[in-house]
Amino acid sequence: MNTRATWVTAIQAERPDQTAGIIPFPVRAAPVGSSAPPSAKPTAEMHRPSVQIRPDGGVRRQMMAWGGLAGEVVRMITHEPFEVAFQAPFNLLVAYERAVRREGETIIHGLPRSTMHDFSQKLTFVPAGHSFRETQHPRDLGRATYLYIDPAGILADPELRVDPSALEPRLFFANQALWETVLKLRGLIELGGSSGSLYAEALGAVLTCELLRLDDGLTLTDSPARGGLAGWQRRAVAEYVEENLAESISLTTLAGLVRLSPFHFSRAFKRSFGVPPHRYHANRRVERAKTLLAQPARSVTSIAVELGFSEPSALTAAFRKVTAQTPTGYRRSLI
Q: In terms of Cα–Cα distance, which of 154, 155, 211, 143 is closest to 181?
């Protein structure tokens, strides 16, 4: 049995109402497996929230904490099934950079469970005290950033004039402002050290404001960029492309989905996604190819066929154009 999982279970058995989701978490960044100096003594300040991952031998974790905000980057290093659980007096925000599972489910207390297979580039918010559990039989070596926000810290700022307990749970949603802030915090976690503490606190304040905007119905996801697509239009187009990656998709078809002329749709799409529709489709094909290449049993030929390429050389050309690598070279880099 995994030693760390046994240790966590033993503590929960003694104090289940106090320790769920709380494990020793050094204030300075320290990868799991590192040890504190012999003279270090555990204190209340050294304990920070952290998701429980079982078994935890298939992931690598990098952690950091700044006052009322803590975070960790979790990378999968095997394709073994695993479970994530969390329940603590902290708000949890999860940003899934890569997350594709063959099967599994995600459950937040108060929301319907989800069995979505691909939730890459999605966010999940778990309010303090709510239970969160996720099981995955992964298809890809995923990566996610977990941010823990103390309601008694940043959210308790009297200038915000908000009841932290009023925040609502949200599962697999998109919000560009939140996403960009999370990526900046992820960068600080990966750098380690404490030099970015003031910057991290500022980002924490931005993060909090964006979370509050969600419950005010002011999400940037539903506000079109100037001259771009509205939130519902972006979602409709993105979902259609994901469901038809292997097909040849016409501009007329996409424009019809959102009730725009091809001319206006093409301009609005580029403003919203940063690239023309055909480039977006090609990029998403390559991202799906990356997911499939992570499965050693899959041949490049079978992947090319599944994604609608006429022959393996066509997949290689498209893959190289986007990544500057061949599919085989990319697969070697995963080992």
A: 211
Q: Quick one: 170 and 117 in the same domain?
A: yes
Same structural domain for residues 290 and 171?
Answer: no
22 and 88, same domain (yes or no): yes
Write out the residue range of the structural domain in which residue 317 sits: 276-335
Rounded distance between C-alpha atoms, residue 172 and residue 228, angstroms: 23
Q: Tell me how crowded residue 317 is: count the other CB atoms within 10 A of its CB.
A: 12
Whether 43 is covered by a domain: the verdict is no
Say which residue the tokens 């108060």 belong to. Answer: 110
Residues 202, 57 within the same domain: yes
Locate tokens 């297979």: which residue?
A: 117
User: What is the residue whose two structure tokens read 């200038």?
Assistant: 159
SS3 279: helix
User: In the structure encoding, which two tokens stand for residue 334, read together?
Assistant: 């995963």
CA distances from 53 to 60, 75, 316 (A): 11, 12, 36
For the chain, 335 residues long, give each residue's pLDDT as a single digit of tens: 343 333 333 323 333 333 345 444 333 333 333 333 333 333 334 357 899 999 988 899 999 988 788 999 999 999 999 999 999 999 999 999 999 999 999 999 888 889 999 999 999 999 999 999 999 999 989 999 999 998 876 555 554 555 555 678 999 988 888 899 999 999 999 887 655 677 887 788 788 878 877 755 433 344 445 678 888 888 889 989 989 999 988 888 998 999 888 888 888 898 888 888 888 999 999 998 998 998 888 999 999 999 999 899 999 999 999 899 999 998 888 76
- Give the closest residue to 148 by CA, choosing from 67, 215, 223: 67
In this structure, is the dihedral angle defined by the CA atoms of residues 39, 43, 49 and 51, taken in order, positive or negative? positive
Angle at 295 between CA 293 and CA 300, to 5 degrees: 40
CATH for 196: 2.60.120.10
H or E element at residue 97:
strand 91-98
